[in-house]
Amino acid sequence: MKNHLNDGQLRAALDGELDFDELKHLESCPECQSRQKMLEAQIRPAVERLRFLSSLTQDSGLSTSSAWNKFNHETLAQKETSMFRKLFASPLIRYGASAALVIALILAFPATRALAGELLSLFRVQRVTVVPVDFTGMEQLDGAVGNNISQLISDSITMKNEPGDPVNAATTDEASQLAGFNVRAPQDITPSRISVMSGASFTFTIDRDKAQALLDEAGRSDLVLPEEVDGADVSVNIPSSVSIAFGTCPEPSSATEAEREMERETTTSGSPGRVYKDCIIFAQIPSPEVSAPASLDINKLAQIGLEFTGMTAEEAAQFTSTVDWTSTLVVPIPKNAASYEQVTVDGVTGTLIERPSDDAPQFALFWIKDGIIYTLGGLGNNSQRALEIANSLP
Amino acid sequence: MDETVWHESVPCQMKLSKSKSEQAFESIFHEYWNSIQRLLSRMVIDPAEAEDLALETFFRLYKYRPAQHEDFNARGWLYKVATNLGLQSIRSFKRREQYETHAGRETIIEAHEQQPQRIFAENEERNFVRTALGRMNLRQAELLIMRYSGMSYKDIAAALDLSPTSIGPLLLRAEREFEKCYRMLTQEEER
Question: Among B7, B8, B16, B151, which would you mutate to test the A interface (most chain A Cβ atoms within 10 Å of its Cβ)?
Answer without folding.
Answer: B16
